[in-house]
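Weekly structure sync, notes
Attendees: PL (lead), two postdocs, one rotation student
Agenda item 3: pending single-chain targets
PL asked that the sequence for the first pending target be pasted directly into the notes so everyone works from the same version. It is reproduced below exactly as submitted, 247 residues in total.
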Amino acid sequence: MLAEERRQVILRMLQQHGIVKIQDICRLTDCSMSSARRDLQLLEEEGLLHRVHGGAQIKRALQSEMTMTDKSSKNHDQKVMIAQKAAALIQDDDVIYLDSGSTTLELARILDATKKITVVTNSVLSAAVLSDHGIDTIVLGGRLKNNTRAIAGADAAVELSKYRFNRAFLGINAIHATDGLMTPDPDEAAVKRMALRQSDKNYVMADSTKFDQVSFVKVADCTDATIITDDNLSPRIAKRFVNQTFI
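Predicted structure, written out during the meeting:
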């Protein structure tokens, strides 16, 4: 098993149990104790866990997530700019997936029925806005998260697998040059992965404060999508994302 695969196993164990022991890592991944300790050290350096005697425990902050009200009030001007860039990419007769999130919600707010599009979304907030604008909208079914008003879980991912999209626009919580696109919730991560798989062109909408950050669950590699961001991304951080396409 590759080192990156081992670390993903460790993170999944932490998600399930809150704590992980070195001997369990060795047993499940068939690695040495020294390899397991190196993995834990690296994950701690990246802020993904806290090492304790004989293993590690979860850093709860990695699973925390602000409410939509709090998210929407942060970096609002940048989110509107990103939404405008995204809207310019949409063509007549497109079928698009619109993910949950405060930045994708701004995209819903500026779309109108002049472009004959169909939108599939897991956001009840975006669905209401799109409906008000007269846009043909399909809402996924599944578990509703109270804090973000996002529909997530296995049922939503299975339903999403029935559709194909010209373009998918995803929200994301953290973007890291090594660890990729990340989110706090495994259920939302599963829905995002399915959207990426079912779409011809993938876009992540993220303001510059999301870069050089980590969260709990990896969704995909950064190069699996074009990143639409604002003009405040520093060249120093951008250089870390080799082979990455930005808009």
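Discussion points:
- The chain has a mean pLDDT of 89.
- The CA atoms of residues 52 and 141 lie 40 Å apart.
Action: rotation student to compare against the earlier draft before next sync.
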